[in-house]
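Dear Dr. H.,

I hope your travels went smoothly. While you were away I took the liberty of generating a structure for the chain from your last submission, since the lab meeting agenda had it listed for discussion. I wanted you to have the full record in hand beforehand rather than looking at slides cold. The sequence, exactly as received, is reproduced here:
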Amino acid sequence: MASATGIPEGTSNSGRGEDEPLLGRAGDASQQEDQGLQFNFFIGTAVIAQVGIWVLTATIWASVFASPLMLFSAHPLLNSAGILLTTQAILLLQPTHTPKQKKQGTNIHATLNMTAILSLIAALVVIEYNKIAHNGPHFQSSHAILGLITYILFFLQAIIGIAQYYTPGVFGSVENAKKIYKYHRMSGYVILLMSFITIAAATQTGFNVGVLHIQLWAVIVASVITLIGVLPRIKKQKLGL
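The corresponding predicted structure, in token form, is as follows:
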């Protein structure tokens, strides 16, 4: 039986299933009954993901603050903050498996992601205002095109995620809303990957080459480390595998 939010009643602590990560043994990346949500940020390979995403964020912020500050500076700062928050939202929710954990985790997951979306919107506003103010070309570089696609995917992901969990009636019923949960999860990982690719593309822009000097290799290494920490914690059953 499902609750109004689409979370099944009863427990889901049956050894394999939702306790089985993509890599590793059942329970390796699961939140324990007596653990608070805060431990989810470090369970299993999450520590590796934390190292990667914080190094990536620190690399971007250090390059920005080491350069002359201007309105444009807010663009990489806000974008990287958004990606950092999104990564934390994923790490928080991955280990949950009981109805109580899922409900608490989803509420905080949504809060983190909405904060990330606001940060990304602000970053988009900054770059668009900067382009208009300087009569700059729009969406010509690979970074700009990838960035636009990633922004759109983020916004769609947020809208669908909120609707399927908080207003499942939009999909006709709770059961219908639950049917797309796995696609929401899959797309979340794709969007995270797209974000890293977009950041990598940003290192090839004229502004970065001439001013910020963020190194492509540094972005790739930090991104790969983050994914090494995130992907093994994926629960097979949650993706319908």
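Two observations you may find useful: The radius of gyration is 19 Å. The longest helix spans residues 99-133.

With kind regards,
E. W.
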